[in-house]
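Re: that chain you flagged

S.,

Sorry for the slow reply, it's been a week of failed gels. I finally had a moment to sit down with the sequence you sent. For the record, here it is as I used it:
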Amino acid sequence: MNKYGTIGVFVLSLVIILAQVFIFKDLVLFGSAFCFFYVLTFFLLPIDTNPLVQIFFGFIVGLLIDTFYSTQGVHAAAATFLMFVRPFWINILSPGSGYGAADRISIRTQGFQWFLTFTYPLILIHCILLFFVEAYGFSNFWDTMSKGFYSSLFTLVVVLIIHYLFINKEK
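Prediction finished late last night. Pasting the structure tokens below so you have them in one place:
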């Protein structure tokens, strides 16, 4: 997916984080669907990345987003949990022959159906956890669930569009 390796993933992740902070921060549909485009950075990591590195990366990215959003750890908690679940989800979806050592997740290499099956549940978990942490519990349960559901759909659409426009075209 990325011809520049680790440095390319780092630079692309930085661009995505800056886009989230300066462009997508105020992108809200109907007051209940928020765009958390930065989760795309978590799907750019190679499949065989060490799980501790993944969790640390999720925490750092979430903390950066929290710094700009002034949300006191909400994004760090959701991103860290997403990165904790990611290796287990990759193993569940692993084909019989396994993955290559440096395989990266993309529509080009795994196909659209696999990409959707991989990304949407993780995005949904991220969004629902984020809104429940933000609500400090289960008060307004259905409102929180609907915000998580609609935000996950909105985020998925934006991730797919960006993936097709920019990332999937790399050789």
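What I noticed first: DSSP finds seven helices and two strands in the chain.

Talk soon,
D.
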